[in-house]
Amino acid sequence: MNRLSFVKIRQIFPRPVVQDVRARVLSEMERIGFRARVKPGQRVAITAGSRGIKNITAILGALVEAVRTAGAEPFIVGAMGSHGGGTAEGQQQVLASLGITREALGCPVLTATEVVEMGETPRGVKVFCDVNAWNADGIIVCNRIKPHTTFHGPVESGLMKMMAVGLGKVKGASFIHRLKPEQIARTLIDIGQVFIQSGKVVAGVGIVENSCEDTAIIEAATPGEILEVERRLLQEAYRLMPRLPVEELDFLIVREMGKNISGTGMDTNVIGRTRMIGVPEPPRPFIARIIVLDLTGESHGNATGIGLADITTRRLVEKMDRRATYLNCITSGNVQRAMLPIIMPDDRAAIEAAVASLNAGETVNHLKGAMIKNTLELEYLWVTENLARELSQRTDIEVVGPPGPLVFREGNLVLEDDH
Q1: Quick one: which of 346, 307, 350, 348 has its CA closest to 326?
Q2: In this predicted model, what pLDDT tens digit does every residue of 84-114 receive, in sequence order?
Q3: Whole-prediction pTM value?
């Protein structure tokens, strides 16, 4: 490791930002005529998932305000499929960790495992809905729209998935995750249309984040507009999605992974790996070795995606809740993503093992490597000195630090602030 020198760089991404989240939500709900869609005294469920979405309490709080302005009674409903260990208590804990509580939002936060079978799609797929949402007079489907880590199509992770998987709970999630990747988008649309045609859905609210996780777009939709709005916002999400600055690396050090970062712990669109039996790996980016060092506290021990790495640390494995991880991967059908890579005692040993496995010998300083905080925060990263020289010629790259070796204390990385 002493022969490898790293340079801190900054990637310059497009960065649109919603300046006043509350005002934007309220104006969007007014734009679609939300008040005409509910009656005074009705109970309206607002969906909340398990992902770490920027400004989510402000967004949900504004929706609570919009519902009350219309004379109706709002409540938050946990919509996270099998996450939270598949239990009502676990889902409450996940929501609380995201700041989604009765105290913060001024309305009840309800979670349940029970579902109601509300119909079936034209292809015979049964559609399930969380019992609390079904017993409401209306549902506002709110979610971030972004590229998915397992499948691709006209809709991916967004409003349709929130209905089919989030509100479908373990039954809905289990069915969707048994499908072949090429079948998922079409099925999500079919299930979403059953929700919409039931008359229960009174609005959709799509959120898109920029490359720095800031809220870039908030757009409301009437029930009949949800599919078209989601399709369009997904394209915007792809445009704004952060990526690594190169498409080929000898090694990538990921300092943390977690469910709050990606449904697969590490975003497969960033690392170029899916590890799904029968599904070809994407040709780019190609990374020969991936080392992941730690698991975020917000993951609550769910280490889904650890199987995407080649080498990890004892620290990460000791934080792993195997029950939660296995339930997630068994439900999704992607059991490879729970398989443990090589486990090393600490950060230094993990990184050294990866470099040694590349058999670079005397040419080790020719290796092209990078280190990121996680696959969501890619504005600042560290790259090997030889790669930094190449990247410094680009207008979208800024070199912000001098070259130097990685610093360890008791075997673990010591770094300055990430910004």
Answers
A1: 307
A2: 777 889 999 999 999 999 999 999 999 999 9
A3: 0.79
